[in-house]
Amino acid sequence: MSREAKRLFFALRPDQEVCEQLVQLQHDCRQPGARVHRAENLHMTLAFLGMVDEGRIETICSMASRIKESGFRLRLEHTGYWRGPKALWCGPSHTPQHLASLVKQLWQGLEGCGFEQEQREYRPHVTLMRKAAAVKPQQLKSQIIWPVSHFELMWSHHKDGALHYETLDRWMLVGSE
Ligand code: ATP
Ligand code: MG
To answer: Which long-range contacts (CB under 8 A, 24 or more apart) does 159-163 make?
Structure first.
């Protein structure tokens, strides 16, 4: 790997309306000491690539541009908690078929680019905060309906001591112009 490598992942990013609802949910779930994700960092990871040589980004983008999947509605219905990263998140109760298909196509394409999919099952979620104390899963009082129209390739890096996710490219889903 050359020195010019970037930490990359594919993700869904909420529009302003959904983002505001997620921020409200962060507020409703707030805990002393938890590290709340900044609004502009809220996302749902589709596929995590890790450190990638910059020279491979063009091939990855061209693979992504060939993906054909319909836009869909994502219904965020409940919160959950992961003990390892002490992450409090929200997610759908079922993975919508179009989301599963998008992730599957991404990994098929990524495998063609030499990436290896990790074995653990894909669990769609939006992390709301880290370093959170354990909480029981809860149904949201008001579900968040997220109209998903596109997906993005993100670059994760630190700038001035803060974590930034920067969009490198984005692609529309079918029927979502
Ligand atoms: P930090 O690691 O600084 O606490 P972060 O986890 O949000 O912040 P990254 O580690 O760059 O930032 O991860 C970017 C996204 O990819 C996050 O949604 C993260 O949950 C996800 N991710 C990171 N590592 C993996 C992995 N090994 N497998 C699957 N998803 C991952
Ligand atoms: Mg991480």
So the answer is: 162/38, 163/41
Q: Which of 145, 146, 147, 96 is nearest to 122 (CA)?
A: 96
Q: Atom 8 of ligand 1 has which residue's CA nearest to it?
A: 163
Classify residue 93 by its DSSP letter. S
Listed in sequence order, the residues at least 6 apart from 81 whose beta carbon sits closer than 8 Å to its beta carbon are 87, 88, 89, 132, 134, 135, 136, 137
Give pLDDT, residue 1. Answer: 52
The CATH number that applies at residue 15 is 3.90.1140.10
State the total domains in the chain: 1
Distance, CA of 103 to CA of 120 (rounded, Å):
13
Tell whether 177 is covered by a domain. Answer: no
- Ligand 1, from 45, 82, 107: best to mutate by most atoms within 8 Å of Cβ? 45
Ligand 1 pocket: which of 9, 43, 120, 126 to mutate (most atoms within 8 A of CB):
9
The better pLDDT of the pair 3, 63 is held by 63
